[in-house]
């Protein structure tokens, strides 16, 4: 069975972790099992802020095991939390009017 293709945020986390010397191969790989430490976590959060423009609270990463998928979810939550209610409503309305194929193409473009 092959692993699912990472979504754009998961792919970004995989790239950042690789740059930090944590060669994750799956969205289920764990930051600390791969050798990540507190200083590496600080570097990861700084890289996320620099490359993705979002500040992720460190405590958001400790709600569960720190896998690639969990880190991606924390980033997505931080991005959504940063939107004003009218911006979020506009994004949701735009997505609501799109087909699954259009959404998939948009996600592929963003990655």
TrEMBL record:
Gene3D superfamilies: alpha/beta hydrolase. InterPro entries: AB_hydrolase_fold (IPR029058), ACP-like_sf (IPR036736), PP-bd_ACP (IPR009081). Residues 4-79 form the Carrier domain. It comes from the Bacteria. This is Carrier domain-containing protein.
